[in-house]
Amino acid sequence: MITVEQILNATNGGLDIILSIYPQARDCVHQKNKHFSIRNERTPSASLRQFNSKRYGAIWQVTDFGGEGRGENAIDIFMRENGYDRSRFNEAILKLAAQFDIRDELDRSVNRPEIRQREARADEKDGTRSFELNEKFTDAELKVLGPKVTQADIDALHWHSVKWITNVKDRKVTVKYSTEYYPIFMRECVIKEAVGDQPEEKFYKVYEPYNCDKGFRFSYTPAGAKPRFYINGLAELKKAYRDFNAKEEKEWNAAHEDGKPYKEQKLPEAVICSGERDSLCCKSMGYFPLWFNSETYQLSVDEYKEIMKYVEVLYNIPDIDETGRRKGRELALRFIDIHTVWLPEKLQTYKDNRGKPRKDLRDWLEIHSERKDFRNLLRMAMPAKFWVQYYTKEGKMKTEVDTACLYNFLQLNGFYALHDDNSAVTQFIRVEGNTVMRVNVKEIREFIRRWVVDRFEDRNILNLVLNTTKLSPAALESLQEIDLDFTNYTPDSQFFFFANKTIEVCVPTVSCPDGLKEYDPGADSLHNFVWEESVIPHRYKALPDMFRITRKEGDNGQTLLDIDILNVKSNFFGYLINTSRLYWREETELPFGDDREASAAYIKAHPFRIDGEGLQPYEIAEQKQNLINKIFTFGYMLHRYKDYARCWAPMAMDNKIGEEDECNGRSGKSFFFKTLSFLVNTVKLSGRNPKLMDNPHVFEMVSQFTGILLIDDCDKYLNLGPFYDNITSDMTVNPKNNKIFTVKFEDAPKLAFTTNYVPQNFDPSTEARSLYMVFSDWYHQKTEDNDYRETRDIRADFGKTLYDYEYSEDEWNADINFWLQCCRFYLSLKDSGLKLQPPMANMVKRHLKASMGANFEDWAEGYFSPDGEHLDEFLPRDDVFNEYQRFANVNRITMQAFTKKLKSFCILCPWIDCMNPPDLCNTGGRIQRSVMVAPDKRKTKDMIYIRSIPLDTKTDATEQDLCFSTEDEKPF
Questions:
Q1: pLDDT tens digit string along 170-205?
Q2: Cβ(290)–Cβ(331) under 8 Å?
Q3: pTM of the entire structure?
Q4: How crowded is residue 879: how many other Cβ atoms within 10 Å of its Cβ?
Q5: Which of 329, 342, 328 is nearest to 377 (CA)?
Q6: CATH number attached to the domain at 547-835
Q7: Are 687 and 670 in contact (CB under 8 A)?
Q8: Which residue has the higher pLDDT, 766 or 962?
Q9: Which pLDDT tens digit goes with each residue over 384-410?
Q10: How is the chain split into domains, by residue range?
């Protein structure tokens, strides 16, 4: 128990506490005669001063001359301001300890026994122990065991204070002496009482409460004497039962001279406690405790029957940590007459001496140490048995449902009410482990009916369940509400829930070097819940890594990444590799000419090759960059955490350059997001409707449980601008026939887009929000209008439809391992600032060609031909503009649109260096010259100057200048 001295010493004599309550008193610390106000008053009337207390030393106190006019220390002030009376003193101390993080942790340098060694005597055999006991406990030792524990309680449960204890090993005797800071206790445990000439059988349990290694706090002597099945306190309970009945029988016989036989009576109750100190605390409250040697001990049916011979009611007070709750529920449902006492949830708001939430009976009694408090605690206990039977005045047996016990039974079995802020309807759920299932009233009733049948209860109990009105929808509204955390991520990790495991993918650390932690379903350390429908219905088994991505710094300081493919056990990995083969024709067709058999043989021998034979180094580098981008993006989409600084929407596009308005599809883009939907709850909207966002209910299928919102197959003219706010802020959902609600940014889904067209905009707003993905045309459709030799789809590569009914569990597991490795890779770069974009050259070309249009490109190639007269000349802009209008026979184009088209042409044209060179422009970025507009008139006009370069020195700008690096560069 934290003491007043510790509180005051840790808070500068209480000054920190006072200033936390009265911050206005801060100026009074160093000004002796200054006053401050506690209430609304014209003249401040409270003073702050330090004085020397005989008991606590130098402490601070406040004197309120406008109140009672007496000095109060920090703890008194805290209690008064927070409404604590004197009976709640201990509670106030624990609250202050939690607020100021005051602990009383064990210290190996202090909390240790005195150890001595000597040679063993001839009569001291290896493995034996001896000891000497003190006559009684000191007051300090009693406080270690509980706030109200007395010597009488100690004696009743046969505890002893140990002076020293020895251990003989290798002919050396180690003597361990108890000290003030390391007390040692021992309990005499009776196995079988002495009967006639048969001696008593017993063993001793040694308890070292201050051993810093918790696993070594208990030991037994002599070795091997402790039976496998043993209930502590049962021998004492039997003796109390005999003593009680002996006394009652004697009084009965004295009062009944007619010889009427005495009928044995049971004791009122016994209490199952969770350990040594809890049991002593229970005894100090006047009750008979029972306890097991471990939390995993399974009380048998015979043991339960044995206990119930002696008591009317058996209580159980489990700890309220995860393990205690689970074991408490198990015991309550195995023996439905046991009355379970759940300690108040509020107890966990207080911290123990290690700074951890308090959880057990001893913790509770440090706050509520009166017997009436303990009696009130027992009064709230309930059994899982939800019916009561009694005799009426007419002598008939009657059975009724006990409503409180019915709801207790349902709660023990995981049934709760869940309130949804977005709906007025109460949901009924069942929690099993960390999986949450939606249930209806009929299913709840059926569960109880089946439970009654499986236990072979009497037919009248079954009829009770079938006929009761206490299982109606209206009645079940009173079912215990629960607040569950469905968050499946942290900033540094992501949880995946499988049929047999929960996997936490995290940033690799020293404690978790492989970045993958496995939990069994419902593990005590797992506090994340998942809807049943979101559990991935496959079994996870760890496989070796399938790729290794390394980082290094380039010559210009940029980050360069490289990938080694370790194995392609995952079919999805193979699909990603093939959709990243930008130069597949250079690898698999051109080297073989018209020899299609040789080409097919090469493809069969190299099905998933990212660094194919015959490719140039830059081609291999681009393909690897493309693959790394897809792995990065897949991992990014799997991580549900949303960061304002890294909030992007993937944009999946085709790499192939087509003619204007050519729609290049069937490259596998949508399959990428279909696969993501196996792991993340996905809502898909069709992007073919250019007026999609005109629908006020467009997001009606979105909820806080939606992980991805996919706008699939976007129309060329779909305006992406209305989506921008939904990428980087909250999302407003307007369901039909229901109220509008807002999904907060952190809960809103990540957006993604697929399109067969090049995006219309490359403005900074789009760039900041987009994570581009480029898909090669490895998968394609042969038609009369293209030059493909064959049609190739995903099924052709694998000989089956991926994720269809014939997909094996081993194949699922291989893909799952790859997916989790993608997530781990993304998390490993999360704090690096990197945004891994793909090679952008072809996409930029497609954008530029689309912005020009075929009509303009045809005109410009002729007008600015290398053999023409318009290169390297100052040309009046309006004249050039008029020339194009006459050629195209258009009059609705603006000068701004014309200039944009011309810039795009100049970037793409292989014989043009640039448009309007900076060295020719004025400070406003324009070229202006005076030209003759009439025989006697000149006028200053805006000019266009197209600078050419020799063809033999021209470098493809789209390869040299327009590719993204791994940094957040822009294409222009």
A1: 999 999 999 999 999 999 999 988 787 888 889 999
A2: no
A3: 0.75
A4: 12
A5: 342
A6: 3.40.50.300
A7: no
A8: 766
A9: 999 998 888 888 888 999 999 999 999
A10: 4-99, 114-221, 241-270+301-379, 387-476, 489-534, 547-835, 843-960
